[in-house]
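Many introductory courses stop at the sequence. We go one step further.
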Amino acid sequence: MAILDSPVSLDTTSSSADSGHFHHATLRRRPSAQPMLDSDSNSLEGDSAINDAGNDKNVANLIGNLRAGVVESANKKLEGESATDEGLSSGKKEEDKVRENGESSNSKGVDAMPIKFAYRPSAPAHRKIRESPLSSDAIFKQSHAGLFNLCIVVLVAVNSRLIIENLMKYGWLIKAGFWFSSTSLRDWPLFMCCLSLPVFALAAFLVEKLVKQNYIPEWAAVFLHVVITTAEILFPVVVILRCDSAVLSGVALMQFACIVWLKLVSYAHTMYDLRVLAKSLDKREALSNYWNMDYSYDVSFKSLAYFVVAPTLCYQPSYPRTACIRKGWVLRQLIKLVIFTGLMGFIIEQYINPIVQNSQHPLKGDLLYAIERVLKLSVPNLYVWLCMFYCFFHLWLNILAELLCFGDREFYKDWWNARTVEEYWRMWNMPVHKWIVRHIYFPCIRNGIPKGVAVLVAFLVSAVFHELCIAVPCHMFKLWAFFGILLQVPLVIVTNYLQDKFKNSMVGNMMFWCSFCIFGQPMCVLLYYHDLMNRKASAR
């Protein structure tokens, strides 16, 4: 058996039956390893040469042993399969020993040299220019997961102390009738009004049917839609004002009425636009190909019924749909919804109510005391607002979308990273934002209205509906919510200016959090509470 004389590798197998065992060995000879330190290190080169010579000697001895083993293995090859298997097993161990002796001896001579010098007292400790992790040039290149965990731990610890302190000071304030009581039966007219609101959607469908069959002209259809939408929003207002109902029940009814009104406007506006497109077949086909959806003009009751219950405010003949309903996922979201709703009730009863009841009108009396009340109210109010956002925009809308197989579930974006107030309003409530852009902003632009005026009109519509949702249930019109929304316009201008000037996302984001959550919302809560208490006191 010939043995390769290659300087790169040498593989040989030997087997013998000494003491009833076979010996299997493989030898691999490598080229001389390059020294890992600099060329001016004479001592390292000498050590490497000595190791190479020793390795060559070991290789020569092993080659001689292997030649003898090959001949002996050929003579005893026919002794049996079981002996061969046993020899291969023991030969594998011998191969590992040879490979370990051959390679480790070479690595000890070269690889050990950097370790020998790396831990010496004279080894350099400073080898390149580095920045501190919290310096301005490196702070955003580091991971701050540990600091984030610290903030969570501190937040939990501080709020745990506040909960214990609140319970020791006020006791358990949540009453047995918090969820339902006998006084809630007086709100039955509001509940009946809520159930009757879908009738206006049926009326809008009948109008569209008449228009399609050419029974009424276009101007009559527009007039009837205006009458239907106006009656839809005025009907719950009259019911709430004529009934001595709870404020929370009135707020819920007005929010539902506003949602139905927005849906009716979108339905009427979209159907009118589809009729216009239907007169130009080429344009309709081009739009269908562009949107990759069926946008043919068709008055379908099934499409309207799905739109009324779907988690969207913008009507279209068809929507992206999912394949199935994940029942286990829906159950988990429902459990979360119950938990976070209970947390909201706990915070309102245990924290917000005592703070508000022990306060005074923020525009009357001591200014410093009013500021202290606003700041004290800001934290629990912020918690309630975040829980409300999570419960409605994430949990409830996703549950509804899952049950209806509604595919587009972008109900919000990362508004918490908003760099300006304008970005916040474009990201925090996507259904309303899409409705405003589709049915207010772009129609104003198409009719030649300047962009700034179109934005002002959009905020004006939003301010009117915010005031309706709060003032009507409170039976008073102080316009605090109306002016609070309109004040967002100068904040938009200021935060846009700061963003352009400083080129820093933190400036506008901090101004948004301070103006909207720390001062704005708590101030509105105190204003409406004291005005409501004054109205009830004067009514007595």
